[in-house]
Specification:
mainly alpha, Dna Ligase, domain 1, 3 domains, two-stranded antiparallel ribbon
Length: about 325
């Protein structure tokens, strides 16, 4: 009986000691995971999709953000965050504690790196733009044909390359074309998405005003239906440059388009050749694709700049010539 009491007392003593030790351990761990980190500058880290808490802990130790991977794993298990950590690129602020890092990774507040590709850029211009980005890994990409890339704002991480951005742009263009083609007007004078893309690139270069795109598209649609040459200045510029445009504030040619340029012999010159050119002359945005596939219905056949950034439209050649004379007068006044 005495032996039973002895062992029971010993068991209770050890249990109490264990509880005290456990409580002490929890108290210590709670303090440790809240203790500021020993690094005094921000740390960038990329968590790949599918990386578990153990792998993340090892990355953090290697980057100098934590001292103990085991403590990070235990903290994740204790807080229930170990299965909630999101992939992506993060910037860990100086002195962040283990708990701060867990909260950051659970929140998904990743570093937002963005690049905006403006509508109407040629492949050459897009290549130059991406090549000038210092935080984007540079490789020599295999450029797809003109018009293959959808201009938009794209997010990226510092591990991605210019080729990765181009690949996403290509997929985005294919997706946009597939979606918009299924919603097109039934009476268009072309039968393929490729032809729609060509015309959209011309509309993109002809006007930057959102309210004009569908009307300008309607003019070209009317001319195509009647077999009238498109006579688009941007197609002549592309014929002369093949998209390798000047970027020094003097226009894509570095000078004004001249009358003799309209006689330049090229399949892209829509003054000399009726119908669509053999390919796009730029990378059109979604709005220009929509405008071409659902153009404004009207009977205009001509348009010319109005001197204020927009265009004036005409139904007859006589009306158009009057508008051209007005535009030349405005241009002459501006050059004085």
């Amino acid at each position: 009986m005495k032996a039973i009491k002895f062992f029971l007392g010993l068991f209770m003593f050890l249990l109490t000691l264990g509880l005290i030790a456990g409580a002490g351990g929890l108290y210590w761990a709670s303090k440790e995971i809240r203790k500021p980190g020993s690094f005094d500058s921000s740390i960038d880290i990329i968590i790949a999709p599918g990386t578990g808490v153990g792998g993340i802990a090892e990355q953090l130790q290697y980057a100098g953000a934590i001292d103990s991977p085991m403590l990070f794993r235990l903290a994740g298990r204790y807080t229930g965050q170990d299965s909630k950590l999101k992939a992506g690129e993060y910037e860990i602020p100086p002195g962040a504690s283990i708990l701060d890092i867990l909260n950051l990774f659970e929140s998904g507040r990743t570093v937002q790196r963005t690049v905006t590709i403006r509508e109407g850029l040629t492949n050459f211009e897009i290549h130059q733009l991406l090549a000038g980005m210092k935080d984007l890994r540079q490789v020599e990409p295999e450029m797809k044909p003109e018009g293959a890339y959808l201009p938009e704002t794209y997010n990226y991480t510092r591990e991605e390359s210019n080729a990765d951005i181009l690949s996403r742009m290509e997929i985005a263009m294919q997706s946009a074309m597939d979606e918009l083609w299924s919603k097109r007007s039934p009476d268009l004078p072309f039968k393929s998405k490729e032809e729609a893309l060509v015309l959209a690139s011309i509309v993109e270069k002809e006007t930057g005003l959102p309210d004009e795109r569908a009307r300008v598209a309607g003019v070209f649609i009317n001319r195509l239906k009647q077999g009238i040459a498109l006579q688009s200045d941007p197609t002549v510029i592309y014929a002369l440059t093949l998209g390798e445009h000047e970027n020094e504030g003097q226009g894509p040619l570095g000078r004004r388009l001249l009358k003799k340029d309209l006689e330049y012999d090229s399949p892209y010159n829509t003054y000399k050749n009726a119908g669509l050119p053999p390919g796009p002359i730029a990378n059109p945005g979604r709005a220009s694709l929509e405008a071409v596939l659902n153009p404004e219905k009207h009977d205009y056949l001509f348009f010319v700049a109005d001197g204020s950034g927009g265009h004036v439209f005409a139904r007859t050649l006589r009306e158009h010539n009057i508008n051209v004379a007005k535009w030349r007068s405005v241009r002459a006044q501006k050059s004085e």
